[in-house]
Amino acid sequence: MTKRENDSFSIQDLMQSFIKENNLTKGMQKLKVEETWNKMMGPGVATHTSSVKLQHKTLIIQLTSSVLREELSYGKDKIIKMMNEEIGQDIISKLMLV
Length: 98
Known about the structure:
single chain; three-stranded mixed beta sheet; 4 helices; elongated; alpha+beta; 17% strand
């Protein structure tokens, strides 16, 4: 019978290594961005959001309300800054509201 090693790892460390080994970082970032958008903007904006996509450091938000699109366009830089801070990485450099 072999002796078991008593190394302990946290779940977070194991998940991070699994994500890196299986090249899932970009997919996880896209999920995190969508969750963060809904959390940061609240239910009022989330109900008028039809899609959230992250492509090449550009966050593309598709909205169903032209009034909301115009209103959010005034605070693009602030939205980018808040999203990056919440995510913990600078993965968004441009915001497109369509």
